[in-house]
Amino acid sequence: MIAVHFGAGNIGRGFIGMLLNKAGYDVCFVDVNKDLVSEINSRNEYTVLFADEGKETFQIRGVRAIDGQDLDEVAREIAHADIVTTAVGPNILKFIAPAIAKGIQQRVKSQKQPLNIIACENTIGGSTQLKAYVYDLLDESVKKQVESMIGFPDAAVDRIVPLQKNEDPLLVMVEPFFEWVIDQSKIIGSIPAIEGATYVNDLTPFIERKLFTVNTGHAVTAYVGYQYGFQTIEQAITNESIYRITKGALQETGNLLVRKYGFDPQQHEEYSAKILKRFLNPFLSDDVTRVGRSPIRKLSPNDRLVSPAMQALNHGIVPTHLGSGIAAAFVFDHPNDPEAMEIQESIKENGLTKTITRYTGIPDDHELFRIVTKQLDWIKKSRNDFYNH
Ligand SMILES: NC(=O)c1ccc[n+]([C@@H]2O[C@H](COP(=O)([O-])OP(=O)(O)OC[C@H]3O[C@@H](n4cnc5c(N)ncnc54)[C@H](O)[C@@H]3O)[C@@H](O)[C@H]2O)c1
Ligand SMILES: O=P(O)(O)OC[C@@H](O)[C@@H](O)[C@H](O)[C@H](O)CO
User: Fold this and answer.
1) Residue 356 CB coordination number (10 Å)
2) Which of 78, 212, 261, 292 is geometrically suited to a Cys-Cys bond with 205, CB 3.0 to 4.6 A?
3) Burial, 341: exposed, middle or buried (Cβ in 10 Å; 0-12, 13-18, 19+)?
């Protein structure tokens, strides 16, 4: 069985590649980082280290990699694969679509075996987005055949994997916890037997619960933490004021999710508490700049901050703490983050009001706009108080 996985990065090696390998797949990574590709091919194995007291290690053996820029080779692999997965980042999905489209076109000509392509990205409907990019590139003549042979089930993935600072370039340190939930209703053919993956018939509650709890909490901690000068998530969440803001944001999203999906309030509170504990993991050193990376993506209307805040207001919940997270994202001026720099440029050129509306889609006469600007004043003041103490 062959698994083609796009993105041999942190989640690729430390989570999806590991589970596929354990499930018996011959894992072929596809990556544009040539050094990474050649390192994988020179050793054909790597180590996953659990970030906890036990520091358990796992050897992932028999893996290989190919260059993502070699469209012909990637297409050849896809034509014969038993599963395709991705962990490249939501903004990269459009760039991997040409190789997938080429592989699918070859495949439907030569065999009838169904294939499922699962995007494991932090976005709602990642596989559906990828499907749209791929379909844009398919010949009309094969689309009908592809519809019955190639599935694009959406998925929610959860495992914190920080940026790696190890001597061994392939070693990846991960938190022990993981969750991989896949939309079974969109699978074509038999369900892939992957130990640790959960199949559900309706993914929406699972992806919203994950994105609006883990990632919302993470983003609020990162953006407010950055303002206070903290380097890691653990340092930031240990600060009483940041803990209170993040917990407040999780209460807002929690109230929303409980009302929207009928989750048991007690169970949801336990879920949120467990997540806050994961942020406190002293064995993970997770930079606030990694967690806050790509603020334009994170501020977009369907992502972890604005979507739950808008939905909360529609359910009669006032999203003050989510408003703090959104506000802090507009003062996230990390020089190495091109999206952060673009936002700062926009503020300089067009002013704050236009910039907020441009990136979040929140009209300037909306209640959420008022909350965000009020929280921005508060963040600036509390940051000054923090530094003057
Ligand atoms: N790190 C986490 O804690 C975590 C957890 C859950 C989900 N995710 C999601 O997983 C995805 C990947 O995140 P990550 O932390 O592993 O990032 P990463 O940067 O460690 O890995 C991404 C990899 O994709 C490769 N890549 C970039 N463009 C490519 C292309 N065109 N073709 C093939 N490979 C390409 C990069 O070279 C890199 O090796 C993101 O969507 C992220 O939101 C991350
Ligand atoms: O990967 P991003 O940029 O969407 O979000 C940053 C983190 O919140 C994220 O990577 C988490 O660590 C992960 O989603 C945990 O499952």
Assistant:
1) 26
2) 261
3) middle
Q: What is the value of pTM for the model shown?
A: 0.97
pLDDT averaged over every residue in the chain: 97
User: What architecture is the 205-388 domain classified under in CATH?
Assistant: Orthogonal Bundle (1.10)
Does residue 32 come out as left (phi exceeding 0), alpha (psi in the -120 to 50 range) or beta? alpha
Where are the domain boundaries for CATH 3.40.50.720 in the chain? Answer: 2-201
SS3 label, residue 358: helix
Whole-number Å distance between alpha carbons of 46 and 250: 36
Q: Note the CATH number of domain 2-201.
A: 3.40.50.720
CA geometry: angle at 51 spanning 50 and 57, to 5°?
25
* Contact (Cβ atoms closer than 8 angstroms) between residue 213 and residue 254: yes
pLDDT of residue 389: 76
Q: Are 24 and 1 in contact (CB under 8 A)?
A: yes
Q: How far is the CA of 234 from the centre of ligand 2 (A)?
A: 15
ipTM above 0.90, yes or no: yes
**Is the predicted pLDDT of residue 208 greater than 80, yes or no?**
yes
Nearest CA to ligand 2 atom 6: 291
Residues having CB within 6 Å of any atom of ligand 1: 6-12, 30-33, 36, 68, 87-90, 92, 95-96, 121-122, 157, 159-161
Region at 196 (left for phi over 0; alpha for psi -120 to 50; beta for the rest): left
Outline where DSSP puts E strands in the chain.
2-6, 26-31, 45-50, 57-61, 64-67, 83-86, 115-119, 150-151, 155-158, 172-174, 179-183, 197-200
Instruction: Return d(Cα 245, Cα 239) in angstroms, integer.
Output: 10
Quick check: CB of 215 below 6 Å from ligand 2?
Answer: yes
Choose one of 218, 232, 253, 305 to mutate for the ligand 2 pocket test, by most ligand atoms within 8 angstroms of C-beta. Answer: 218
Range(s) of the chain covered by CATH 1.10.1040.10 = 205-388
